[in-house]
Write a sequence for this structure.
């Protein structure tokens, strides 16, 4: 197991979700958020952590 003593935290807020949901409906908005989540998961390193923080926000924990 590898231990780190410092981390970076990335907070990602997806802008425009309210308007997107109002215009196209919640299922389309959910699809956008799923796409963002999939992209983050596939682009992260094995030891990075990706989590949904709030409705349209994600947090990525990046050990240095």
């Amino acid at each position: 197991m590898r231990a780190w003593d410092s981390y970076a935290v990335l907070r990602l807020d997806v802008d425009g979700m309210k308007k997107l949901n109002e215009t196209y409906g919640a299922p389309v908005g959910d699809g956008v958020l799923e796409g963002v989540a999939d992209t983050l998961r596939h682009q992260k390193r094995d030891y990075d952590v990706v989590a949904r923080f709030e409705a349209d926000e994600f947090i990525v924990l990046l050990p240095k």
Notes: The two ends are 15 Å apart (CA to CA). The chain has a mean pLDDT of 93.
